[in-house]
Design goal:
The chain is an alpha/beta fold and about 260 residues long. It has two domains: about 130 residues, 3-Layer(aba) Sandwich (D-Maltodextrin-Binding Protein, domain 2), CATH 3.40.190.10; about 90 residues, 3-Layer(aba) Sandwich (D-Maltodextrin-Binding Protein, domain 2), CATH 3.40.190. About 40% of the residues lie in helices and about 25% in strands. The strands form four sheets. A five-stranded mixed β-sheet has the order 9-8-10-7-11, sandwiched between helices. The longest helix is centred in the first third of the chain and has 19 residues.
Length: about 260
Amino acid sequence: MKRWTITILAALCLCIGSSLVQAQTIDDIIKRGSLRVGLDLADAPYGYLDNSMQPDGLDFAVATLAAKTLGVKLEIVQVNAASRIPTLVNGQADIMMGALAILATRAMQVWFTIPYSSGPTGIIAPASTKIAAVGDLANLKVGVVRGSTQDVIITAVAPPSARLIRFDDDASSISALISGQVDCTVAGVAVGRATAAKNPDKHIEFKIALRQNPLGIGVRRGNTDLLQWLNTFIFNIKYNGELEAMHVKYNLPYGLPVF
């Protein structure tokens, strides 16, 4: 009897767990009345807290418009680079943004929409730090966000003598660069520009580009209905100019490979 009880309870737990991550439809989200979106609020200009400690950024703007279009409220699920995929797969968020680069390896875990933004990832450092090629990273301390696309890129190309120092988010990595804990850091061009603007005395430059990264919205595998709606939504805001206006507002490059 005890064995049967344990077996039944285990089966019930599996059923409950699987119900949390089952394929969702747009009707499910509308019925609930909220769209749960994973956002990284320490990754300006895609996601951050403004001077009033309110969410802002490109990803927040796109997510807000998506929720408004569906006629539901936006529910933010805060993530960092490393927690984005697990948070989505575990059913804690309906969709995942957080400047999520479209990668074939990630597509084995989640599905991606068509791109809504893009930008090169590269090395930023003070003007006095001479970096003209990847080989110049030899013997330097290089900051990078743990579990991010940047981490994958730099790990593959860094010279053996480069010391990769990993942080939980862009804010921590940038702080380490400004304070001199690292010689350079891996970041997107938009983050590099924002860092230079906020710290003019540090003379931060975008040194070399490592890769162009298209960004997509992630959904759990099997969520065909939700994926189709998001693709239509992105297409429409590209076509009517709203997406380009958002990029201009946040001083982000707009163009290929967005289309």
